[in-house]
Request: fold
Amino acid sequence: MKKQIVLGLAFMIGAISFGQKKEMKAAEKAIKSNNYADAKSMIQSAEPMLSSMDDKTKAKFYFLKGQALYANGAGNEADTALALESFNTLMEVEEASGKNTYTVKVDEIKVSMINSFIEKAQTALGQKNYDSSYKNFENAYKLSPSDTLYLYNAALLATSNKSYDKALSMFDELQKLNYTGIRIEHIATDKESGEDQKFPSAVMRDVSVKGGTHGNPRDTKTESKAGEIAKNIALIYIEKGESDKAIAAIEKAKATNPKDFNLILAEANVRYKLGQMDEYKSLITEALSIEPNNVDLLFNLGVVAAEEKDYESAKKYYDKSIEVDPTYTRAYLNAAAMILDQEPAIVDEMNGLGSSAADDKRYEELKEERTQLYKDAIPYLQLAFENEPKNIQAARTLMNIYSQIDDQPNFEAMKAKVDALEGN
Reply:
């Protein structure tokens, strides 16, 4: 009786083994014929036998499963995620067994998979499909964990997609990896155009230098993205209504490098979002002590001062930003807007006056003040329009001001420019 039972078990084991081979052989054949639907069906039939497979057969199973689900790039989002899991499990199985038969084969198709994911991510980004874009960048990272830039891109795009919890988990992983995004850029100046050009490697740059087409070869470091990561984490928490966690995220990042310029800016942005204007101005001032000619920071202080009706300070910051960069059109436009922002108060007072002699006198004074505001705004608008001859906003505002101050020649000249820009 014992012999019969043993023989029976042996027969069953043989049958299972035969079943495994049959299903997997059929799946392999279907994959070679690009018949991924049949391959998935065969894999599903073989899956219940996983527990009885030896390591070599398990590795092959996960290899075939990954291929069937990935479907040479045609698999849907869910199947693609399962394919990546399957390939990872395969590598774990072979690492434990000391074999690498199918791991090598996975490595061979990784390059095409990564390229496919990146292409899909970029295409989706061009279509502003942030959901698809971040998921494809994340898939590329899963296949190539050393390429942390893919994870960084995925985190940014998940933020744009408002997939905040997913973005937080990716930013958290980047911080655990001590990701800074700092890289070396290989630069040389094109002698013909006079413009700097970046090269993918120092070797390629040096070839161009030796060839005589480029000069001034140099290597530069890009800025750290640690501050940007901390800022994004904090802003996500603000969007989630968790301002305490937002500040904690910034403080955690600052603990390692409290004088980091980008971290100071990150905190400034967070404080601004929270409406903490005094802290914001203090941080921007601190950042300006590091980069005193940072035109964006000067402009931002001008914006805050204008919002607080501190027109004298706003003008000072706008003028300073223009001094640093005479082509900074936003500063001209904001300076003009800040000046014209004082008009409604004058008009309200004019409308509230009576008909007495004193009121008439005051009316004329206010009328002169209003005209002077227009005249003060004109130079800023003229320079803005000189910088950007297609700036319809500046042209239209100038036209209206010339009309208000009865400057007919300039009004007609500007009206012609406005009509031309509007296609009339």
Notes: The chain has 20 helices and three strands. The chain has a mean pLDDT of 88. The CA atoms of residues 329 and 384 lie 5 Å apart. The radius of gyration is 33 Å.
